[in-house]
Amino acid sequence: MSSPKSVVSSVVDDARKRIASSTENRVDAISQLCLGRFDEISADLEALISPTQPIAVRNAAVTELASFRSPVAGQMLIAAIPGLPAGTRRVAIDRLVSRNASANAVLESIRSGLLNVTYLSSQQKQRFLSHPDQRVSKAAKELLGAESDRTAVLGEMKSVLAMSGDVGRGQIAFRKVCVSCHQLEGHGTPVGPDLAPLRNRGAEFLLTNIIDPSREVDARYEAFNVVTKDGRTFQGIVIKDDESTVSLLQSDGKRIDIAKDDVDLLQATGKSLMPDGLEKELTAQGVADIIAYLISLE
Ligand code: HEC
Fold it and tell me: Which domain range does residue 202 map to?
């Protein structure tokens, strides 16, 4: 009769074989692989979270990795975070914040620039700020406590709400500044969401979203940077990420397909593809006009 240890070893070996065979098998086999001891399978997981893997594989591997208590697992998660889509990044950060040592390691990585502070959701920031370990909460106040400059600009732009906007001028301004990403009345490219259904949400909602688009980044619209091995850089929403190709939808509406073999870096910005600072291309009156135009839509 075989001992429990050798049963686990053969389960792990079987998982390794399935992982080597095909992408679909790989996703299924990852939880089986993780029945093994962490030190025995950490090298396998390291390979499975690499950006060269299809996104489905990376997501499954990160979710499993997050269940291990080892500090090495924490370091591997931190290193993987910049390349992950928002949903999986959240799983990784939630796991890291829940342990004192790894919560500290996240803050260290923000300090050193390895992680972007915009990777944290507002709930996660709150968890760091009110962390039971005082070293964590103190460092968090220093690093995460600052208000974003967008909050200040939004305060300054509140006057827009008292202005009366002109629908005709608003349509012209919208077609100049916004139609590279929003399609309305047959004009523009639908990179971002349809704005027509928002007319009932009110002027304040529209103003907040125009001035501070990354306040709540919708995972579908998060901008990623890709740097290729020959030094070209691209930014866009990831619309495909599989074995062979990563495809970006860029802010001019053009799609670019990049071979996985050519990718040197794939990194989330933690921000919406809709840029900050659009108000600089418009006057306060111009913003009021655009809001009047959006509210007037049928
Ligand atoms: C470079 C592309 C781009 C440009 C230019 C752009 N947007 Fe956006 N916009 C987006 C994307 C992408 C989103 C979705 C953001 C998210 O949820 O993370 C968005 C979201 C919005 C929303 C919120 C929609 C919702 O359903 O919550 C509003 C309102 C909006 N944009 C208005 C504007 C206006 C007005 C302009 C011009 C002044 C503009 N946008 C210019 C890409 C753009």
Answer: 149-213+276-296
Six-digit token pair at 202?
């009110």
CATH of the domain at 247: 2.30.30.100
- What is the model's pLDDT at position 203? 96
Residues 190 and 59 both lie in one domain: no
Residues with CB under 6 A from ligand 1: 177-178, 180-182, 191-193, 195, 198, 206, 209-210, 213, 217-218, 221, 251, 272-275, 278, 290
Q: Are 235 and 269 in contact (CB under 8 A)?
A: yes
Q: What is the pLDDT of residues 137-173, one digit of tens each?
A: 999 999 987 777 888 999 999 999 999 999 999 999 9
Same domain for 8 and 127, yes or no, is yes
Q: Give kind and range of the element (H or E) at residue 259.
A: strand 255-259
Q: What is the pLDDT of residue 183?
A: 95
Interatomic CA distance for residues 80 and 46, integer angstroms: 9
Alpha-carbon Rg for the chain, nearest whole angstrom, is 23
Distance CA 279, CA 291 (A): 12
Give the chain's residues under pLDDT 50: none
Residues 90, 121: contact at Cβ < 8 Å?
yes
- Based on the fold, state whether residues 97 and 139 are members of the same structural domain: yes
Q: Count the domains in the chain.
A: 3
List, in order, residues 6 or more apart from 22 with CB less than 8 Å away: none
CA distance 100 to 285: 49
Say yes or no: 245 and 193 in one domain.
no
* CATH code where residue 193 lies: 1.10.760.10
Q: Which of 121, 153, 174, 178 to mutate to test the pocket of ligand 1 (most atoms within 8 A of CB)?
A: 178
Domain end, chosen from 97, 118, 144, is at: 144
